[in-house]
């Protein structure tokens, strides 16, 4: 039998918040999922679209780990560029998403265009594209409906704003709770193997083992 090709990750850093947008690529089928598109400017939008077109990828899913403004600025761009793409978000974060329009201008994003999810994410219900299956893990604390995506075959986590290199997500925004965030990290991330790579919503990638040993918030 031919070898099973892996899922690979391509990352982009967009907008004034230096937010990490990820393309999850199913190498066997060239289908991809776009996670947390933060592209706002025309140049950022073209960077994402150009990469997808140059690599002949087929956009299969739009996923949000959560719906704070820096992670959703490009949602409508994705849906208008690749019509019919399913857009999935945990239902507890739909109010967070809908609130963005009320403050986007104050944050310097007057051209923000809202988008509505077409489906829901839920813990224990995997999402699939091509031959890739992602486990959905519910990890609130930074946002009420925050989820992370775990791909066990490649020991990869797309973690949003839960765990960072030597840090954790902020909890002073509406719906945030420090104790809840620490509990989410303990149950949904620190239970994974040390070699698991975590791709966070900001900053460089890290590993579960590195953060278990050296993250001051987890000691």
From TrEMBL:
<keyword id="KW-0862">Zinc</keyword>
<dbReference type="InterPro" id="IPR051453">
    <property type="entry name" value="MBL_Glyoxalase_II"/>
</dbReference>
<feature type="region of interest" description="Disordered">
    <location>
        <begin position="196"/>
        <end position="219"/>
    </location>
</feature>
<dbReference type="GO" id="GO:0046872">
    <property type="term" value="F:metal ion binding"/>
</dbReference>
<dbReference type="InterPro" id="IPR036866">
    <property type="entry name" value="RibonucZ/Hydroxyglut_hydro"/>
</dbReference>
<feature type="domain" description="Metallo-beta-lactamase">
    <location>
        <begin position="18"/>
        <end position="202"/>
    </location>
</feature>
<protein>
    <submittedName>
        <fullName>MBL fold metallo-hydrolase</fullName>
    </submittedName>
</protein>
<feature type="compositionally biased region" description="Basic and acidic residues">
    <location>
        <begin position="209"/>
        <end position="219"/>
    </location>
</feature>
<keyword id="KW-0378">Hydrolase</keyword>
<keyword id="KW-0479">Metal-binding</keyword>
<dbReference type="Pfam" id="PF00753">
    <property type="entry name" value="Lactamase_B"/>
</dbReference>
<dbReference type="GO" id="GO:0016787">
    <property type="term" value="F:hydrolase activity"/>
</dbReference>
<dbReference type="InterPro" id="IPR001279">
    <property type="entry name" value="Metallo-B-lactamas"/>
</dbReference>
């Amino acid at each position: 039998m031919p070898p099973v090709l892996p899922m690979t990750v391509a990352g982009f850093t967009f907008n004034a918040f230096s937010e990490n947008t990820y393309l999850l690529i199913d190498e066997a089928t060239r289908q991809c999922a776009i996670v947390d598109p933060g592209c706002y400017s025309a140049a950022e939008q073209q960077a994402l679209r150009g990469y997808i077109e140059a690599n002949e990828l087929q956009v299969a899913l739009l996923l949000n780990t959560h719906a704070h403004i820096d992670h959703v600025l490009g949602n409508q761009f994705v849906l208008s560029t690749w019509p019919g793409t399913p857009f999935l978000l945990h239902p507890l974060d739909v109010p967070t998403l809908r609130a963005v329009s009320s403050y986007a201008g104050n944050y310097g994003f007057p051209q923000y265009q809202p988008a509505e999810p077409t489906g829901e994410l839920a813990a224990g219900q995997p999402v699939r594209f091509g031959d890739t299956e992602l486990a959905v893990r519910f990890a609130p604390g930074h946002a009420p409906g925050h989820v992370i995506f775990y791909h066990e075959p490649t020991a990869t986590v797309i973690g949003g704003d839960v765990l960072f290199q030597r840090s954790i997500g902020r909890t002073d925004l509406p719906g945030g709770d420090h104790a809840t965030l620490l509990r989410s990290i303990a149950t949904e991330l620190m239970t994974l193997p040390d070699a698991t790579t975590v791709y966070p919503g900001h900053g460089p990638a890290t590993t579960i083992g590195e953060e278990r040993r050296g993250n001051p918030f987890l000691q």
